[in-house]
Hints:
Layout: H1 2-12, H2 15-38, H3 41-49, H4 52-71, H5 80-102, E1 104-111, E2 115-132, E3 138-145, E4 158-162, E5 165-184, E6 193-199, E7 204-210, E8 217-222, E9 225-230, E10 240-246, E11 252-258, E12 263-270, E13 275-277, E14 284-291, E15 294-302, E16 311-318, E17 321-326, E18 329-334, E19 338-364, E20 371-380, E21 384-389, E22 394-396, E23 399-408, E24 414-423, H6 427-460
Parallel strand pairs: 9-10
Antiparallel strand pairs: 1-24, 2-3, 2-19, 4-5, 5-15, 5-16, 6-7, 6-14, 8-9, 10-11, 11-12, 13-14, 16-17, 18-19, 19-20, 20-21, 22-23, 23-24
Amino acid sequence: MGKFFEKLIRQLSSLKLAVFVxxxxxxxxxxxTIYEAKFDARYAQKVVYQSIYMKGxxxxxxxxxxxxxxxxxxxxxxxxxxxxxHVGIIITLLGALITEKMGLDGSMVFPLGKSNRFVTxxxxxxxxxxxxxxxxxxxxxxxxxxxxxxxxxxxxxxVIPLGQEEMQVLKYYHYAVGKEEFVPSEITQTGPALxxxxxxxxxxxxQWLHKPQGKKQEELALGPARIVIHEGDFKYxxxxxxxxxxxxxxxxxxxxxxxxxxxxxxxxxVKAGESFDTxxxxxxxxxxxxIPRAKKEVHFSQRDVPTPNTRSAILVKYKDQKHWxxxxxxxxxxxxxxxxxxxxxxxxxxxxxDIILKKFNVGRYQGTNRxxxxxxxxxxxxxGQVVISMNEPMKHNGLTFYQASFEQDxxxxxxxxxxxxxxxxxxxxKYLGSFLIVLGSIVLFYDRRMKILDLIKKEAK
Length: 461
């Protein structure tokens, strides 16, 4: 038995195993770099960095480091740097494991003057809310999901139990492009939808405009102008406005107001296929399609690689209804006496306190609209007013808040701040491991230098 353990120690502490582990680690890391460049960071994380292959290689690395130290037993003074460096590597890997299992890495978005207490993380979840047609929604299902590793299909769907009923997730596309359209609906709890075209010698825009049932009006902002669809109680309050009201005979009554005169300049009736001159810089309005009771349908097509327009999407089935749901979207599923709200999105983590964005400052490069610096002035319980800038994060309750980016409107004005939020319980352990690696390297260098000096002295004698 003793010879067996001696042989095992020699094998697990061998240089051959070390070379194999280092080579495998280099290959896996290179593959991860290629995947991240071709796809994205999350894809590389799922396929490479969090895969069984990477964990197996790192596990072999730890085993090799441990048995290399065991093979040197009993340790002597000149082993100090060697032991410190090897223990440091193991401790650093332990800290990384703690970060992966217990850490938090997400983002928070704050519109100006608003508060937020939820961090959005890459993990995904499904929530289903139910309500009677006139009642308050109640959550009836909620679960974290990972369809990347275990995608559903028609034969093995993801089942959502709802008492005597159930919903099913039939498909999952990791990269998908969505296309929205409105179709006629037999459900009375739906509102009108119109597909319109605005055209002159400078613009040619086609857009859907939909007013949900129960909402008094819906508007489409077009820079200095607005198009409003309403139920008949529209009141003009300034600006260039086109007000549209649905009639009983599948036509629309329109009224056009001009900001310069503050008066109505045109009115009339328009049907699908007809057009009229708006009086705004020669813009022609054409009603391409009008649906008195419409529901929105979204269709997704799969893509092999990501683009700025791709996101993940799932196909949901409830009774005879099938709906595509894109990431961070909600779809309504109607029944005879109730309605379900199906939500598919990134998981949100409650940080336990509110943060209010009081002010957002942007510094621009001279003569351009490019942002040079930006910072958020926020109000935090227990801390009061705090400034979070690109180089000065805020730390509170074990969380670190970094200024990541901001959102702006079509005029280039900042409308929301985006903070990156991080909690890393493994950070002190990784710092300790890194310190031991550096200390061990210094000791090794010092010992080697002393050996060389001793050798020179002996040769001199």
